[in-house]
Design brief:
- With 353 residues, the protein is α/β, with parallel strands linked by helices.
- 23% of the residues lie in helices and 26% in strands.
- The chain has helices at 43-49, 99-102, 154-157, 163-173, 189-200, 215-221, 232-236, 256-259, 283-287, 301-314, 328-336; strands spanning 3-9, 18-24, 31-40, 66-73, 85-88, 91-93, 115-116, 137-141, 146-147, 181-185, 204-209, 225-228, 242-247, 262-270, 292-295, 320-324, 343-347.
- Strands 3, 4, 5, 8, 9, 16 and 17 form a seven-stranded mixed sheet that branches. A six-stranded parallel sheet has the order 12-11-10-13-14-15, with helices on one face.
- Helix 4 (163-173) crosses helix 5.
- The model has no long low-confidence stretch (mean pLDDT 97).
- Bound molecules: NADP nicotinamide-adenine-dinucleotide phosphate and zinc ion (2 copies).
- The site of NADP nicotinamide-adenine-dinucleotide phosphate has 31 residues, from helix 1, helix 4 and helix 5.
- One zinc ion (ZN) binds at residues 42, 44, 64, 90, 162.
Length: 353
């Protein structure tokens, strides 16, 4: 018996997302079947649906900020039971045997074996690609399923699975804590979570935005200061002062205005992954103060669970706008204009409409 699911998919880089019936695998002994309640809308969904990174295989069913209820578990699944509230983020499998996987850094699987939640080869269904959370159900190996505290607002918790972990992980990796001055560039889905985490970790948090209209929100979300990054005079006041800057911007831009703000030995970590490359950064900005530009990809499964537990303890969730799946194409256009406060989340029950 085929295990069919309702989904929304892009059929080409230029087509709108539209309904599609997809096939999920039967629940294997290590699998968890999840009825998807909510799915966040990440800018990566748009990049992939529109083929902006190359390598998109159509149809693309995006969605990697999944929260739902367990409806069935395989015979060898001990950590989850029917009715549990669970999450699925950006990965659904990896090689599990390489050094990175053994350290629970599955996103950096040394064999290239990371299976992403969508647009990765699906080893369970011959010739198929993985399909994400713009769907009414998903089947995932239990090693890649996360526990979500029922204390959290479940719709607002969904973006923690990508926007949350992608900002939490580099802030933790660089040891951000009280006494540090931290910049977050771009007040979108990732950026607003970055501000919340940097503030929660005790850092002096500065939000950089191109949008005058977001200044008050930046402060409300936890920023100590908000800087309009297009204003050279405002930027100059912060020269040579940052320990760490997290850059979440989804479009190509000059990095030099930000590297100039780092202290000696300071780091700017890029998590934004724009379609077109950034202009080559100024070497002088880097060598004269031994500054660094780094990158970071989501976070491992162990750290994602740690982040979810931290959020449950501190009451941290995303600021969201809940939408029916039928509004997804409109949501993409609004995301491109920066018109979202600060993450769209799909109410997956609307797939039944
Ligand atoms: P988003 O909600 O669209 O936010 C991006 C923000 O970037 C915007 O709100 C805007 O902030 C700023 N921005 C956009 N265009 C800009 C431009 N031309 N110049 C300057 N600033 C601009 O996107 P998101 O979902 O947070 O994702 C951000 C990026 O991270 C995407 O490229 C996504 O693919 C990537 N990503 C990476 C990872 C990873 O593991 N590394 C994980 C998830 C997502 P202001 O209005 O405040 O300026
Ligand atoms: Zn994402
Ligand atoms: Zn591996």
């Amino acid at each position: 018996m085929a295990n069919q699911a309702k989904a929304f998919a892009a059929q080409s880089s230029t087509s709108l997302l539209a309904p599609l019936t997809i096939q999920r695998r039967e629940v294997g002994i290590h699998d968890v079947q999840i009825a998807v309640l909510f799915c966040g809308v990440c800018h990566s969904d748009l990049h992939t649906a529109r083929g902006e990174w190359g390598g998109s295989a159509y149809p693309v069913v995006p969605g990697h900020e999944v929260v739902g209820k367990v409806t069935k578990v395989g015979g060898s699944v001990a950590r989850f039971k029917v009715g549990d509230t669970v999450g699925v983020g950006c990965m659904v499998d990896s090689c599990r045997t390489c050094a990175s996987c053994k350290e629970s850094l599955e996103q950096y699987c040394d064999t290239g074996g990371t299976i992403f939640t969508y647009n990765s080869p699906d080893k369970h269904i011959a010739g198929a690609m993985t399909y994400g959370g713009y769907s009414d159900q998903i089947v995932v190996n239990d090693g890649f399923v996360l526990h979500i505290s029922p204390k959290l607002d479940l719709a607002a918790a969904a973006p923690l699975l990508c926007a949350g972990i992608t900002t939490y992980s580099p802030l933790r990796n660089w040891g951000i804590t009280k006494g540090h001055k931290v910049g977050i560039v771009g007040l979108g889905g990732l950026g607003h979570m970055g501000v919340k985490f940097a503030h929660a970790f005790g850092a002096h948090t500065v939000m950089f935005t191109t949008s005058e209209s977001k200044v008050a929100d930046g402060k409300r979300l936890g920023a100590d200061e908000v800087v309009i990054s297009k204003d050279a005079a405002q930027m100059a006041k912060h020269a040579n002062s940052f320990d760490f800057i997290l850059n979440t911007v989804a479009a190509s831009h000059s990095l030099d205005a930000f590297t100039a703000l780092l202290k000696r030995d300071g780091t700017m970590c890029l998590v934004g992954a724009p379609e077109h490359p950034h202009p080559s950064p100024s070497v002088m900005n880097l060598i004269f103060r031994r500054r660094r530009i780094a990158g970071s990809l989501i976070g491992g499964i162990k750290e994602t669970q740690e982040m979810l537990d931290f959020c449950a303890l501190h009451g941290i969730v995303s600021d969201i706008e809940l939408i029916p799946i039928q509004k997804i194409n409109e949501a993409y256009e609004r995301m491109l204009k920066g018109d979202v406060k600060y993450r769209f989340v799909i109410d997956n029950s609307t797939l039944a409409n």
